[in-house]
Protein backbone atom coordinates (compact mmCIF):
# COMPACT_ATOMS: atom_id res chain seq x y z
CA UNK A 1 0.00 0.00 0.00
CA UNK A 2 1.28 3.44 -0.92
CA UNK A 3 1.56 5.72 2.06
CA UNK A 4 -0.76 8.73 2.16
CA UNK A 5 2.00 11.33 1.73
CA UNK A 6 3.51 9.41 -1.20
CA UNK A 7 0.08 9.35 -2.86
CA UNK A 8 -0.48 13.05 -2.16
CA UNK A 9 2.91 13.84 -3.70
CA UNK A 10 2.10 11.86 -6.84
CA UNK A 11 -1.27 13.59 -7.14
CA UNK A 12 0.60 16.89 -7.09
CA UNK A 13 2.96 15.66 -9.81
CA UNK A 14 -0.01 14.53 -11.95
CA UNK A 15 -1.61 17.98 -11.64
CA UNK A 16 1.71 19.61 -12.51
CA UNK A 17 2.26 17.30 -15.52
CA UNK A 18 -1.15 18.32 -16.83
CA UNK A 19 -0.21 21.98 -16.27
CA UNK A 20 2.99 21.42 -18.27
CA UNK A 21 1.07 19.46 -20.96
CA UNK A 22 3.08 16.29 -20.29
CA UNK A 23 0.00 14.13 -20.69
CA UNK A 24 1.75 10.78 -21.12
CA UNK A 25 3.53 11.25 -17.77
CA UNK A 26 0.26 12.39 -16.18
CA UNK A 27 -1.56 9.28 -17.47
CA UNK A 28 1.22 6.94 -16.32
CA UNK A 29 1.28 8.37 -12.78
CA UNK A 30 -2.50 8.89 -12.43
CA UNK A 31 -3.01 5.24 -13.35
CA UNK A 32 -0.75 4.14 -10.46
CA UNK A 33 -2.48 6.49 -7.99
CA UNK A 34 -5.98 5.35 -9.03
CA UNK A 35 -4.93 1.68 -8.74
CA UNK A 36 -3.50 2.30 -5.26
CA UNK A 37 -6.45 4.22 -3.82
CA UNK A 38 -9.55 3.38 -5.89
CA UNK A 39 -10.73 6.84 -4.80
CA UNK A 40 -13.33 8.35 -7.20
CA UNK A 41 -11.37 11.62 -7.34
CA UNK A 42 -8.26 9.71 -8.48
CA UNK A 43 -10.22 7.74 -11.10
CA UNK A 44 -11.59 11.06 -12.35
CA UNK A 45 -8.07 12.52 -12.48
CA UNK A 46 -6.92 9.56 -14.61
CA UNK A 47 -9.89 9.94 -16.99
CA UNK A 48 -9.20 13.68 -17.26
CA UNK A 49 -5.52 13.02 -18.13
CA UNK A 50 -6.57 10.46 -20.76
CA UNK A 51 -9.06 12.94 -22.22
CA UNK A 52 -6.41 15.68 -22.44
CA UNK A 53 -4.00 13.21 -24.07
CA UNK A 54 -6.75 12.60 -26.68
CA UNK A 55 -7.27 8.95 -25.67
CA UNK A 56 -11.04 9.36 -25.78
CA UNK A 57 -12.06 5.69 -26.04
CA UNK A 58 -9.79 4.73 -23.15
CA UNK A 59 -11.04 7.60 -20.98
CA UNK A 60 -14.61 6.54 -21.71
CA UNK A 61 -13.73 2.94 -20.79
CA UNK A 62 -12.24 4.04 -17.43
CA UNK A 63 -15.34 6.14 -16.65
CA UNK A 64 -17.79 3.41 -17.69
CA UNK A 65 -15.97 0.83 -15.58
CA UNK A 66 -15.87 3.04 -12.51
CA UNK A 67 -19.63 2.62 -11.83
CA UNK A 68 -19.65 6.27 -10.81
CA UNK A 69 -21.67 7.56 -13.73
CA UNK A 70 -24.41 8.69 -11.34
CA UNK A 71 -22.12 11.58 -10.54
CA UNK A 72 -22.65 14.57 -12.84
CA UNK A 73 -18.97 15.24 -13.43
CA UNK A 74 -18.22 11.67 -14.44
CA UNK A 75 -21.18 11.74 -16.81
CA UNK A 76 -20.14 15.10 -18.21
CA UNK A 77 -16.56 13.94 -18.89
CA UNK A 78 -17.87 10.73 -20.50
CA UNK A 79 -20.17 12.84 -22.69
CA UNK A 80 -17.20 15.09 -23.63
CA UNK A 81 -15.38 11.95 -24.85
CA UNK A 82 -18.42 11.04 -26.96
CA UNK A 83 -18.49 14.60 -28.33
CA UNK A 84 -14.86 14.25 -29.45
CA UNK A 85 -15.76 10.92 -31.07
CA UNK A 86 -18.75 12.64 -32.76
CA UNK A 87 -21.14 10.04 -31.33
CA UNK A 88 -23.89 12.57 -30.74
CA UNK A 89 -26.83 10.28 -29.86
CA UNK A 90 -24.65 8.43 -27.34
CA UNK A 91 -23.50 11.79 -25.98
CA UNK A 92 -27.11 12.90 -25.35
CA UNK A 93 -27.97 9.55 -23.74
CA UNK A 94 -24.98 9.89 -21.43
CA UNK A 95 -26.15 13.35 -20.33
CA UNK A 96 -29.51 11.89 -19.29
CA UNK A 97 -33.07 12.93 -20.01
CA UNK A 98 -34.23 16.45 -19.49
CA UNK A 99 -36.70 18.81 -21.07
CA UNK A 100 -36.32 22.49 -21.76
CA UNK A 101 -38.96 25.08 -22.66
CA UNK A 102 -38.85 27.79 -25.34
CA UNK A 103 -37.34 30.28 -22.86
CA UNK A 104 -34.49 28.02 -21.80
CA UNK A 105 -35.98 26.93 -18.47
CA UNK A 106 -34.93 23.38 -17.65
CA UNK A 107 -37.71 21.05 -16.56
CA UNK A 108 -37.22 17.74 -14.69
CA UNK A 109 -33.46 17.43 -15.05
CA UNK A 110 -32.09 14.01 -14.07
CA UNK A 111 -29.44 15.34 -11.73
CA UNK A 112 -27.65 12.25 -10.52
CA UNK A 113 -25.78 12.87 -7.30
CA UNK A 114 -22.63 14.77 -6.52
CA UNK A 115 -20.66 12.20 -4.61
CA UNK A 116 -17.51 13.62 -3.25
CA UNK A 117 -16.45 16.72 -5.07
CA UNK A 118 -15.24 19.79 -3.29
CA UNK A 119 -18.34 21.75 -2.25
CA UNK A 120 -16.40 24.91 -1.29
CA UNK A 121 -15.19 25.41 -4.83
CA UNK A 122 -18.68 26.05 -6.14
CA UNK A 123 -18.67 29.83 -6.05
CA UNK A 124 -15.57 30.00 -8.25
CA UNK A 125 -16.65 27.41 -10.76
CA UNK A 126 -18.97 27.39 -13.71
CA UNK A 127 -22.00 25.39 -12.64
CA UNK A 128 -21.67 21.82 -13.97
CA UNK A 129 -25.38 21.87 -14.91
CA UNK A 130 -24.71 24.84 -17.17
CA UNK A 131 -21.86 22.96 -18.88
CA UNK A 132 -24.22 20.00 -19.39
CA UNK A 133 -26.90 22.23 -20.95
CA UNK A 134 -24.26 23.71 -23.25
CA UNK A 135 -23.03 20.28 -24.38
CA UNK A 136 -26.63 19.20 -25.06
CA UNK A 137 -26.98 22.29 -27.25
CA UNK A 138 -23.82 21.41 -29.18
CA UNK A 139 -25.03 17.85 -29.71
CA UNK A 140 -28.42 19.01 -31.01
CA UNK A 141 -26.72 21.54 -33.27
CA UNK A 142 -24.47 18.79 -34.69
CA UNK A 143 -27.63 16.72 -35.30
CA UNK A 144 -29.16 19.70 -37.15
CA UNK A 145 -31.86 20.27 -34.57
CA UNK A 146 -31.32 24.00 -34.29
CA UNK A 147 -34.48 24.71 -32.30
CA UNK A 148 -33.47 22.43 -29.44
CA UNK A 149 -29.87 23.64 -29.70
CA UNK A 150 -31.08 27.21 -29.22
CA UNK A 151 -33.17 26.28 -26.18
CA UNK A 152 -30.31 24.42 -24.50
CA UNK A 153 -27.85 27.27 -25.17
CA UNK A 154 -30.36 29.62 -23.54
CA UNK A 155 -30.65 27.20 -20.62
CA UNK A 156 -26.86 27.12 -20.20
CA UNK A 157 -26.64 30.92 -19.90
CA UNK A 158 -29.63 31.01 -17.54
CA UNK A 159 -28.21 28.34 -15.23
CA UNK A 160 -24.89 30.22 -15.08
CA UNK A 161 -24.40 33.59 -16.83
CA UNK A 162 -20.62 33.05 -16.64
CA UNK A 163 -20.99 30.36 -19.34
CA UNK A 164 -19.96 32.87 -22.00
CA UNK A 165 -19.60 30.42 -24.87
CA UNK A 166 -23.29 29.55 -24.80
CA UNK A 167 -24.19 33.22 -25.26
CA UNK A 168 -21.54 33.53 -27.97
CA UNK A 169 -23.14 30.63 -29.89
CA UNK A 170 -26.54 32.32 -29.67
CA UNK A 171 -25.25 35.74 -30.76
CA UNK A 172 -22.66 34.79 -33.40
CA UNK A 173 -24.95 32.28 -35.10
CA UNK A 174 -27.93 34.65 -35.06
CA UNK A 175 -30.13 32.19 -33.20
CA UNK A 176 -32.23 34.92 -31.56
CA UNK A 177 -34.09 37.96 -32.86
CA UNK A 178 -33.17 41.35 -31.34
CA UNK A 179 -36.18 41.15 -29.04
CA UNK A 180 -35.33 37.61 -27.88
CA UNK A 181 -31.75 38.67 -27.12
CA UNK A 182 -32.99 41.51 -24.92
CA UNK A 183 -35.50 39.23 -23.17
CA UNK A 184 -32.82 36.63 -22.46
CA UNK A 185 -30.45 39.26 -21.06
CA UNK A 186 -33.20 40.66 -18.81
CA UNK A 187 -33.92 37.18 -17.42
CA UNK A 188 -30.32 36.40 -16.35
CA UNK A 189 -29.47 36.39 -12.65
CA UNK A 190 -25.99 37.84 -12.21
CA UNK A 191 -24.00 37.57 -8.98
CA UNK A 192 -23.47 40.84 -7.10
CA UNK A 193 -19.83 41.14 -8.27
CA UNK A 194 -20.80 40.37 -11.87
CA UNK A 195 -22.31 43.73 -12.81
CA UNK A 196 -19.50 44.22 -15.32
CA UNK A 197 -20.53 40.99 -17.07
CA UNK A 198 -24.14 42.10 -17.39
CA UNK A 199 -22.88 45.40 -18.87
CA UNK A 200 -20.55 43.55 -21.26
CA UNK A 201 -23.36 41.29 -22.46
CA UNK A 202 -25.57 44.27 -23.21
CA UNK A 203 -22.73 45.72 -25.35
CA UNK A 204 -22.36 42.34 -27.06
CA UNK A 205 -25.98 41.94 -28.12
CA UNK A 206 -26.86 45.46 -29.20
CA UNK A 207 -27.49 45.54 -32.90
CA UNK A 208 -28.57 48.88 -34.34
CA UNK A 209 -29.06 51.52 -31.71
CA UNK A 210 -28.64 55.24 -31.36
CA UNK A 211 -25.08 56.42 -30.80
CA UNK A 212 -25.85 57.87 -27.35
CA UNK A 213 -27.48 54.59 -26.20
CA UNK A 214 -24.43 52.58 -27.23
CA UNK A 215 -21.98 55.09 -25.74
CA UNK A 216 -23.94 54.93 -22.48
CA UNK A 217 -23.61 51.13 -22.46
CA UNK A 218 -19.82 51.31 -22.86
CA UNK A 219 -19.64 53.95 -20.08
CA UNK A 220 -21.75 51.68 -17.89
CA UNK A 221 -19.33 48.81 -18.51
CA UNK A 222 -16.38 50.99 -17.44
CA UNK A 223 -18.19 52.00 -14.25
CA UNK A 224 -19.25 48.44 -13.36
CA UNK A 225 -15.72 47.11 -13.99
CA UNK A 226 -14.38 49.07 -11.05
CA UNK A 227 -15.89 46.35 -8.85
CA UNK A 228 -13.13 43.97 -10.04
CA UNK A 229 -10.33 46.37 -9.06
CA UNK A 230 -9.97 50.16 -8.89
CA UNK A 231 -7.97 50.37 -12.13
CA UNK A 232 -10.08 47.91 -14.10
CA UNK A 233 -12.40 50.59 -15.51
CA UNK A 234 -9.51 51.85 -17.61
CA UNK A 235 -8.46 48.29 -18.39
CA UNK A 236 -11.96 47.39 -19.60
CA UNK A 237 -12.12 50.52 -21.75
CA UNK A 238 -9.04 49.30 -23.66
CA UNK A 239 -9.92 45.61 -23.63
CA UNK A 240 -9.84 44.06 -27.11
CA UNK A 241 -13.14 42.18 -26.72
CA UNK A 242 -14.86 45.42 -25.72
CA UNK A 243 -13.28 47.43 -28.55
CA UNK A 244 -14.15 44.69 -31.06
CA UNK A 245 -17.80 45.19 -29.99
CA UNK A 246 -17.38 48.89 -30.62
CA UNK A 247 -15.90 48.21 -34.08
CA UNK A 248 -18.86 45.97 -34.89
CA UNK A 249 -21.17 48.78 -33.90
CA UNK A 250 -19.33 51.22 -36.22
CA UNK A 251 -19.66 48.71 -39.03
CA UNK A 252 -23.39 48.37 -38.49
CA UNK A 253 -23.79 52.16 -38.49
CA UNK A 254 -22.05 52.42 -41.86
CA UNK A 255 -18.99 54.14 -40.30
CA UNK A 256 -16.66 51.89 -42.28
CA UNK A 257 -13.59 54.13 -42.13
CA UNK A 258 -13.86 54.53 -38.36
CA UNK A 259 -14.39 50.79 -38.03
CA UNK A 260 -11.39 49.94 -40.22
CA UNK A 261 -9.08 52.31 -38.31
CA UNK A 262 -10.11 50.77 -34.98
CA UNK A 263 -9.75 47.14 -36.13
CA UNK A 264 -6.35 47.94 -37.69
CA UNK A 265 -5.08 49.16 -34.32
CA UNK A 266 -6.59 46.16 -32.53
CA UNK A 267 -5.05 43.64 -34.92
CA UNK A 268 -1.63 45.20 -34.35
CA UNK A 269 -2.15 44.49 -30.64
CA UNK A 270 -3.54 40.97 -31.15
CA UNK A 271 -3.15 39.72 -34.73
CA UNK A 272 -4.98 36.47 -33.96
CA UNK A 273 -8.21 37.87 -32.48
CA UNK A 274 -10.63 36.22 -34.91
CA UNK A 275 -13.74 38.18 -33.98
CA UNK A 276 -11.89 41.39 -34.63
CA UNK A 277 -10.47 39.94 -37.85
CA UNK A 278 -13.98 39.26 -39.15
CA UNK A 279 -15.12 42.86 -38.57
CA UNK A 280 -11.86 44.07 -40.17
CA UNK A 281 -12.55 41.96 -43.28
CA UNK A 282 -16.08 43.31 -43.56
CA UNK A 283 -14.90 46.93 -43.30
CA UNK A 284 -12.03 46.40 -45.77
CA UNK A 285 -14.51 44.91 -48.23
CA UNK A 286 -16.89 47.90 -47.94
CA UNK A 287 -13.97 50.30 -48.44
CA UNK A 288 -12.57 48.33 -51.39
CA UNK A 289 -9.15 47.80 -49.74
CA UNK A 290 -8.13 44.83 -51.89
CA UNK A 291 -4.45 44.97 -50.81
CA UNK A 292 -5.33 44.61 -47.14
CA UNK A 293 -7.69 41.76 -47.97
CA UNK A 294 -4.99 40.01 -49.99
CA UNK A 295 -2.37 40.17 -47.21
CA UNK A 296 -4.80 39.26 -44.47
CA UNK A 297 -6.24 36.29 -46.37
CA UNK A 298 -2.74 34.92 -47.12
CA UNK A 299 -1.88 35.05 -43.41
CA UNK A 300 -5.15 33.47 -42.34
CA UNK A 301 -4.84 30.58 -44.80
CA UNK A 302 -1.29 29.99 -43.54
CA UNK A 303 -2.23 30.12 -39.83
CA UNK A 304 -5.72 28.58 -39.89
CA UNK A 305 -6.16 26.40 -42.99
CA UNK A 306 -9.03 24.52 -41.29
CA UNK A 307 -11.08 27.57 -40.30
CA UNK A 308 -13.95 28.91 -42.38
CA UNK A 309 -12.89 32.53 -41.79
CA UNK A 310 -9.61 31.99 -43.71
CA UNK A 311 -11.32 30.92 -46.93
CA UNK A 312 -14.03 33.52 -46.40
CA UNK A 313 -11.23 36.12 -46.41
CA UNK A 314 -9.94 34.80 -49.75
CA UNK A 315 -13.50 35.05 -51.09
CA UNK A 316 -13.70 38.67 -49.90
CA UNK A 317 -10.50 39.50 -51.78
CA UNK A 318 -11.85 38.06 -55.04
CA UNK A 319 -15.20 39.76 -54.52
CA UNK A 320 -13.40 43.04 -53.98
CA UNK A 321 -11.54 42.75 -57.32
CA UNK A 322 -14.83 41.71 -58.99
CA UNK A 323 -13.80 38.11 -59.74
CA UNK A 324 -17.13 36.71 -58.64
CA UNK A 325 -16.62 33.10 -59.81
CA UNK A 326 -13.53 32.70 -57.64
CA UNK A 327 -15.21 34.58 -54.79
CA UNK A 328 -18.08 32.11 -54.88
CA UNK A 329 -15.75 29.14 -54.95
CA UNK A 330 -13.97 30.28 -51.77
CA UNK A 331 -17.18 31.24 -49.97
CA UNK A 332 -18.33 27.71 -50.83
CA UNK A 333 -15.14 26.26 -49.36
CA UNK A 334 -15.84 28.21 -46.15
CA UNK A 335 -19.40 26.88 -45.83
CA UNK A 336 -18.02 23.39 -46.54
CA UNK A 337 -15.67 23.67 -43.55
CA UNK A 338 -18.32 25.19 -41.28
CA UNK A 339 -21.92 25.08 -42.45
CA UNK A 340 -22.99 27.50 -39.71
CA UNK A 341 -20.57 30.33 -40.53
CA UNK A 342 -23.00 33.16 -41.42
CA UNK A 343 -20.79 35.55 -43.47
CA UNK A 344 -19.91 32.86 -46.03
CA UNK A 345 -23.59 32.21 -46.81
CA UNK A 346 -24.26 35.94 -47.22
CA UNK A 347 -21.13 36.21 -49.40
CA UNK A 348 -22.28 33.36 -51.64
CA UNK A 349 -25.66 35.03 -52.19
CA UNK A 350 -24.18 38.46 -52.84
CA UNK A 351 -21.62 37.06 -55.31
CA UNK A 352 -24.39 35.30 -57.26
CA UNK A 353 -26.44 38.51 -57.21
CA UNK A 354 -23.45 40.45 -58.57
CA UNK A 355 -23.50 38.12 -61.58
CA UNK A 356 -27.25 38.56 -62.05
CA UNK A 357 -27.80 34.89 -61.13
CA UNK A 358 -30.98 35.57 -59.19
CA UNK A 359 -32.14 31.99 -58.60
CA UNK A 360 -28.87 30.86 -57.08
CA UNK A 361 -28.63 34.04 -55.02
CA UNK A 362 -32.12 33.39 -53.65
CA UNK A 363 -31.21 29.78 -52.82
CA UNK A 364 -28.20 30.94 -50.77
CA UNK A 365 -30.25 33.60 -48.95
CA UNK A 366 -33.03 31.08 -48.24
CA UNK A 367 -30.50 28.70 -46.67
CA UNK A 368 -29.10 31.57 -44.59
CA UNK A 369 -32.59 32.60 -43.47
CA UNK A 370 -33.28 29.02 -42.34
CA UNK A 371 -29.94 28.62 -40.54
CA UNK A 372 -29.88 32.06 -38.87
CA UNK A 373 -33.46 32.94 -37.87
CA UNK A 374 -32.25 35.88 -35.77
CA UNK A 375 -30.54 37.58 -38.71
CA UNK A 376 -32.60 39.96 -40.84
CA UNK A 377 -30.02 40.26 -43.64
CA UNK A 378 -31.07 37.19 -45.70
CA UNK A 379 -34.70 38.37 -45.81
CA UNK A 380 -33.54 41.91 -46.59
CA UNK A 381 -31.38 40.61 -49.49
CA UNK A 382 -34.25 38.46 -50.80
CA UNK A 383 -36.45 41.55 -50.82
CA UNK A 384 -33.76 43.41 -52.78
CA UNK A 385 -33.71 40.59 -55.35
CA UNK A 386 -37.48 40.98 -55.80
CA UNK A 387 -37.04 44.74 -56.26
CA UNK A 388 -34.62 43.94 -59.11
CA UNK A 389 -37.30 41.74 -60.65
CA UNK A 390 -39.86 44.56 -60.21
CA UNK A 391 -41.95 42.30 -57.98
CA UNK A 392 -42.69 45.04 -55.44
CA UNK A 393 -45.51 43.30 -53.56
CA UNK A 394 -43.30 40.31 -52.69
CA UNK A 395 -40.35 42.58 -51.94
CA UNK A 396 -42.50 44.47 -49.44
CA UNK A 397 -43.43 41.23 -47.64
CA UNK A 398 -39.76 40.30 -47.22
CA UNK A 399 -38.83 43.78 -45.96
CA UNK A 400 -41.66 43.66 -43.41
CA UNK A 401 -40.38 40.27 -42.25
CA UNK A 402 -36.86 41.72 -41.89
CA UNK A 403 -38.35 44.60 -39.90
CA UNK A 404 -39.98 42.17 -37.46
CA UNK A 405 -36.60 40.49 -36.82
CA UNK A 406 -34.60 43.70 -36.41
CA UNK A 407 -36.81 46.80 -36.21
CA UNK A 408 -33.91 49.21 -35.71
CA UNK A 409 -31.93 48.77 -38.95
CA UNK A 410 -32.43 51.93 -41.06
CA UNK A 411 -31.64 50.06 -44.29
CA UNK A 412 -34.97 48.22 -44.07
CA UNK A 413 -36.92 51.50 -43.98
CA UNK A 414 -34.99 52.83 -46.96
CA UNK A 415 -35.91 49.72 -48.98
CA UNK A 416 -39.56 49.99 -47.92
CA UNK A 417 -39.45 53.59 -49.15
CA UNK A 418 -38.04 52.47 -52.51
CA UNK A 419 -40.85 49.91 -52.86
CA UNK A 420 -43.55 52.47 -51.96
CA UNK A 421 -42.04 54.96 -54.44
CA UNK A 422 -42.11 52.36 -57.22
CA UNK A 423 -45.72 51.53 -56.38
CA UNK A 424 -46.46 55.29 -56.67
CA UNK A 425 -47.46 55.45 -52.97
CA UNK A 426 -45.53 58.67 -52.47
CA UNK A 427 -47.03 59.61 -49.09
CA UNK A 428 -45.94 56.25 -47.63
CA UNK A 429 -42.55 56.56 -49.30
CA UNK A 430 -41.93 59.91 -47.58
CA UNK A 431 -42.77 58.34 -44.21
CA UNK A 432 -40.41 55.39 -44.80
CA UNK A 433 -37.53 57.64 -45.92
CA UNK A 434 -38.03 59.92 -42.92
CA UNK A 435 -38.04 56.86 -40.65
CA UNK A 436 -34.77 55.77 -42.26
CA UNK A 437 -33.13 59.03 -41.27
CA UNK A 438 -34.52 58.93 -37.71
CA UNK A 439 -33.16 55.38 -37.30
CA UNK A 440 -29.61 56.16 -38.43
CA UNK A 441 -27.36 55.84 -35.44
CA UNK A 442 -25.32 59.01 -35.64
CA UNK A 443 -24.98 62.15 -37.67
CA UNK A 444 -25.80 61.29 -41.30
CA UNK A 445 -22.79 59.90 -43.18
CA UNK A 446 -22.37 59.23 -46.90
CA UNK A 447 -24.08 55.86 -46.50
CA UNK A 448 -27.43 57.68 -46.18
CA UNK A 449 -26.93 60.08 -49.09
CA UNK A 450 -29.15 57.94 -51.39
CA UNK A 451 -31.96 58.15 -48.81
CA UNK A 452 -31.81 61.96 -48.84
CA UNK A 453 -31.89 61.93 -52.66
CA UNK A 454 -34.81 59.46 -52.61
CA UNK A 455 -36.68 61.66 -50.17
CA UNK A 456 -36.09 64.70 -52.38
CA UNK A 457 -37.44 62.92 -55.47
CA UNK A 458 -40.50 61.72 -53.57
CA UNK A 459 -41.31 65.18 -52.23
CA UNK A 460 -40.99 66.51 -55.78
CA UNK A 461 -43.55 63.93 -56.93
CA UNK A 462 -45.94 65.16 -54.24
CA UNK A 463 -45.71 68.81 -55.43
UniProtKB/TrEMBL annotation:
Listed InterPro entries: TPR-like_helical_dom_sf (IPR011990), TPR_rpt (IPR019734)
Keywords from the UniProt entry: Cell cycle, Cell division, Mitosis, Repeat, TPR repeat, Ubl conjugation pathway
Superkingdom of the organism of origin: Eukaryota
Signal sequence, renumbered to the chain: none
BP GO annotations: anaphase-promoting complex-dependent catabolic process; cell division; positive regulation of mitotic metaphase/anaphase transition; protein ubiquitination
Gene3D superfamilies cross-referenced by the UniProt entry: Tetratricopeptide repeat domain
One cellular component term from this protein's GO annotations in UniProt: anaphase-promoting complex
SUPFAM superfamilies reported in the protein's UniProt record: TPR-like
TPR repeats: 308-341, 342-375
Protein's recorded name: Uncharacterized protein
Amino acid sequence: DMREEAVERLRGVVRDSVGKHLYTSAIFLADKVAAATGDPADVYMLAQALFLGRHFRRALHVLNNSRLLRDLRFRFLAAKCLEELKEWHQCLMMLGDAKVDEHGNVLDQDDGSDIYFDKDAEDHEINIKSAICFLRGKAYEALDNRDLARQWYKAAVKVDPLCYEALECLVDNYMLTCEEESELLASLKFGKEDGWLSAFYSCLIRKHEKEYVVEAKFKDLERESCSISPSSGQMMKNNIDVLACKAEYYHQSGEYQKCFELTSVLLERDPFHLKCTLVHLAAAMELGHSNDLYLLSCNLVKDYPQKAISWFAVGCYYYCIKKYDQARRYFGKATGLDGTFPPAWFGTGIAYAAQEEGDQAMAAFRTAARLFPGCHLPTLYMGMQYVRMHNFKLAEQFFMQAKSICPSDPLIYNELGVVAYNMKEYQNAVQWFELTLTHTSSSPNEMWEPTMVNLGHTLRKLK
